[in-house]
Amino acid sequence: MRIFKWAAVSLMLFTLLSIVPGQSSAQFKFSDINAKDEAFEEVHYIADLGIINKVAKFNPSDNLTRAQAAKMLVIASKKQNIPTPAIQFKDLKPGTEQYEYASRAVSLGYFKVGSDNRFKPNEKLKRDEMGYALAIAFNLNQPITLDHPMVLTDMASHPYAERINGLYYGGVTQGDAGKFLPNQYLTRKQFALFVARGLNDKYKLPVKQPEQTSRTYFVKVDTKGDTLNVRNQPSVNGAILGSLQDGAVVEVVGQSGDWLLVLLEQGEGYINGRYTIELGTTKPPTAPEDNDVAEDPKPTEPAEPVKPEPPAVTGNLVGKATVNNLNVRAAASGTAKAVGKLNRGQKVEVISIDGYWAKIKFNSETAYVHKSYLKLINTSGNPLKDRIIVIDAGHGAHDPGASKSGLTEKAVNLKVAKLVESKLKKAGAKVLMTRSTDTFLSLEQRTEFAKKHYAEAFVSIHVNSAGSSSAKGTEVYFDSSVNENSAESKLLATAIKNNIVKRANMNDRGVKDQRFYVIRNNNVAAVLVELGFISNSQDFNKLASDEYIEIFAESIYQGLVQYYSAE
Asked: 319, 299, 314: which is closest to 567 by C-alpha?
C-alpha cells in the first residue's frame, strides 16, 4: 500500500508541475535561433506573448510581408479583439485571417491603402513603412528640435521623419551607422527586435542626447558670395532666423544629417553643412593689422554679476596662482591699476574674499586678485571648508539622457550628485546644485549658474553609452581650448577618475581633453565625469546599484578632497 501511495503522490506532483503556467513556454525554442544570437531573448519573448506562432522554425532572415506585420502589430497592441472593420480590399477576402488583421491595422492607422483599395498582403515591407506602423502602434512621435535633432541622417526630410525620430528617442532603433535605410526591406528578426523594444523597457536601446556632451568645432561659411540662411529646424522647411555672410566663422555644437547646429550671438540655429568648410576645434584668430604687436596672454576678468552674500572665510587661507601673468590690482576692479603680476604656482596670503575678488598681501601691501585664477588652499582644517563647488547633474525632465531597461541617465546623475552634495556640505564646503530635482536646464544655464555664484570648481556628472555593448569604464574630461584653468581642470579630472577606477573597480578609460560645452564655457577648474556605460552589462549593474551609486559619489568627493589637499 505504501508503494501505491507514493506512486500516486508522485503522479500528482508530476501532473501539477506539468501545468504550471509558463513551464512549457520556458522550454520552447526555435530551432533556427541560437542562444547567442542578439535577438534570442526578444524573439522568444514575443512568442510567449502570442505575437508570433510557436513553430519549429522562425526563419529570422526572411523578409517580412505586410500581412505578417499587420498581424504582429495588432496583437502586440492588444487590438485583436476589436470588431472587424468593414473595409473593402480588392486583394483580400472578408472572413480570412489576413483580412481580419489587415482591416484592423488599416483602421488603427498602422498601414495606408492606396486609391486602388489593395492591401498588398504579400508585398515585402520596407523599413520606412515599418517604422511608421511601429510608431503609430506604440504612440511614438518626436518633433525634430534643438533638444531632439534627427540623428539618422537619411531621414531628415522624409515624410515619416518625426515618427522615426520617435523610434530613435524611444530606444527602438539606432539605425545602421547613422542611417535608417528607409528603402531597404525588413527581416523577421529585425521586426521582432523592434516590437520587443517597443513593448518592454528591458530590451530598449540606450539613448544618448546628442546635445548634452557633444564635442564642438568651428566651420567657415563657403557660399561663393551668397548669404547662408539660419533656420530653427534642420530642414529647408524650418523658419529662417537670420543669415550668415560668406566667410563667417561659427561654432558647431550639434548635427542632424547635413544640418549643423551653430552658436549665434543670440541663441542657436541650423545651417546646411554642405556650404561650410570645417576648420577644426580651435577658432582661427582674426588677422592682425601690420602695426599690431603680440602680447603675452592675460586671463580674462569677466564682468561682475549681481552678488549674493559672499561666503565667510575663516582660518588661514593661501591662494596659488593657476595661470601666468595674473594681474595684481590696487582695487577690486578689472580697471584698477595693476601693481604687479603673479605666475602659475606662486602663492599669496588671502585676507578675505568678496565675490570674484581676493584681497591679498602682496609685497607687504594690500592688493587684489581675481579669484578665478587662484586655487584657494586652507592651511588648516578641512581642505574643502568654504570652497564654492558647483555639482551639475546632467540632463533632466524631458531629456533623460542615455537609458536602458527603465534606468535613465538623468536619474543616476541626480542620485550621485545629491550624495556628493551631502558629503561636501559635511566637510564645510558651500555646495551649489544646478538641479536638485527632475528639471531641465540648458547648457548655457548651467555654466551661467556657476559664474553667477562665483564657483571655484565645477563637476558635471554623466553616464556614457555606446552602440557596442563591449565599451565600458570610466572617463573624465577637461577642456584646454578655451578654459584658461585647463591645467587645474586636468588635475581635478585625474584625481576623480583615479578614485572611481580604484573604488568602483571600473575599467580605466583615462582623462581626456574635449570641447564639451559645460567645461569649455567655465573659467575655473571644470570637469565632466562619465561614470560608466549604461550600454555595457557590467557597468549597467553598477549604475543600477545603490551600493555603487554611493561608491561613485564617495569617489568624486575624495577626488575633490585630494585636489584641494595638494599644494
From this structure: 319
Could you say which of 448, 530, 554, 567 is catalytic? 530
Q: How far apart are CA 60 and CA 190, in angstroms?
A: 8
Helices (H), 28-185: 40-48, 66-76, 97-107, 127-137, 161-169
Contact call for residues 76 and 198 (beta carbons, < 8 A): yes
Closest CA to 360 of 310, 321, 303, 403: 321
Instruction: Determine whether 133 is exposed, middle or buried from the number of CB atoms within 10 Å of its CB (0-12, 13-18, 19+).
Output: buried
- Picking from 395, 398, 357, the residue whose alpha carbon sits closest to that of residue 376 is 357
DSSP-assigned letter for residue 121 = T
Tell me, yes or no, if the pTM score tops 0.90. no
123 catalytic? Reply is no
Burial annotation 464-486 (CB, 10 A radius, 16+ → b, else e):
bbeeebebbbbbbbbbbbbbbbb
CA-to-CA separations, 402 to 150, 210, 477, in angstroms, rounded: 16, 10, 18
pLDDT in tens, 367-415: 999 999 999 999 999 999 999 999 999 999 888 888 888 899 999 999 9
Q: What is the pLDDT of residues 427-458, one digit of tens each?
A: 999 999 999 999 999 888 999 999 999 999 99
Task: Please state, in angstroms and rounded to a whole number, the distance separating the CA atoms of residues 383 and 376.
Answer: 9
**In what order do the strands lie in the sheet containing 508-513?**
430-433, 388-393, 457-464, 525-533, 474-478, 508-513
